[in-house]
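Q: Sequence in, structure out?
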Amino acid sequence: MHIEIEKMLFGDYRVQVWDENLNSRLDREYFCRGYASALFTAIDIRTLDGFSELPIYYRDMDNLSEIMK
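A: Exactly. Output:
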């Protein structure tokens, strides 16, 4: 499992908790305006929702890269 920040159109980002085993997202999905807002949302998911062990990944088109462990 990981938290994923996905770039969308016009400076929007989607932040979601992703489960590779199920190949789908969990019930958490947020839409943000701007990268900083998306990153802070991902950090809040880790700290407030009990997902502290999950890494944060950034997806731009088909590229997925880890930005925070």
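Strands lie at 2-7, 12-19, 24-33, 56-60, 63-68.
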